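SEVERITY: medium
COMPONENT: batch folding queue
REPORTER: lab tech (J.R.)

DESCRIPTION
The queue accepted two submissions in a row. Attaching both inputs and their returned structure tokens so the on-call engineer can compare them side by side.

ATTACHMENT 1
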Amino acid sequence: MKVFSKRGLPDDRSQAIEIHDSLEAFSESDIAPDKHPGGCVGYELLDGAGILRGELRNDDDEFIIAGPKLYVPQDFQERGRALGLAGGSVLVGGTSKQSFTTEDLGRFLAKIAHSYAVAVRGLGSFVPFLTGAIRGARPMHLSHYIGKIDPSLPQSDYKHLHVLEDGFIRIGYRQLLVVRVRLLAVDSYPAYEVVVGEKPVPNYYNLT
């Protein structure tokens, strides 16, 4: 992996945002991946999934996110100093020819959560909610099924790079299958709660 550093930045400008059209002012070094200071752009959700808050499902509700925000490892400054860097600045870059929409994030989380639930629980073990959204079919109901984790709930002590957890939550007479998705968990990346489906109701009356 590569790290780019720029020396001589005054302390009073360490929190300022600088825009550079090129990397000519920076020097490049190769470092081991586990020594890299890290840094990743992420997005947070403002509310929990609508279905868990007792809301009615809209025809095609808007999926609202907050960000982008920059997340770094807890020992970011220590890693920077170990490389001889000031540890007070982050260079964020990259270009893409593809446009990014909030729905892209929602469908991305839906694919991860649904695939994980099928792998763990088995095909046909739950009535899926997200297959239409995964295919891009409208209405997608993303904010009805995807949201942030309730901050009042106990959080796991995340020590792994990525974390996926699943379990059933009872809402009235329904048992909803929820998957918690936290990518880059070790770097305090935001966590999401995805309601992938519900437990099927047993057929007590065999008419055949």
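ATTACHMENT 2
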Amino acid sequence: MAVWTDQQLAAFLTGVAQDRLYAAWWLAALRGLRRGELAGLRWTDVNLQAAELTVTQQRVHADGHVVVGPPKSAASCRVVALDAQTVRMLTQHRERQQELSAAAGTRWQDSGHVFTTATGAALRQDYLTGRFRRLVAASGQPPIRLHDLRHGAATLALAAHTDLKVVQAMLGHASIALTTDTYVSVLPEVAHKAAQETAGLVLRAASKLRRELST
């Protein structure tokens, strides 16, 4: 999998901050939502006061048509916690959407979705994919897929020492083994830091005993 570093992600996000779908890229990159989940997210699924959103559906292609269906698995039906910055971002996104609605007038399609076209219609998955690809190309960052932002969200969470069970729940994995097997190996610095911290426990214990370990 291709994963941006935190600096590469920050450079991309700051560069596309004025994009109409900026909040979608942010949610994919930091909260790990799939593109179908982004396309299917409705404002009724978002509780800004409680700082959380609920993944209840996704928009996917089937037999040449876009259909609304349940998330990928039972575990994918999940509540995703939101940090204060994400709440502010979604609040601003909703305000801009309301401005678009007022400007569009009778042309506005009140789909109820969080991420829409300029006239309010729900988005297709391939639209998100294409728009993201163009933004990445213009950013000068290493090429990655939209789905790779989800991988990046997991690796960043692990780098921030988030518990594996929390990462599993955020991504909607049915098994913690999937989370572990998929992501732990892609961040070798996490393993090295864990090794250092483990050794540090013993070294500090020895220091309290006023004894020096052999080096």
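NOTES FROM REPORTER
The first strand starts at residue 46 and ends at 47.
No errors were logged for either attachment.
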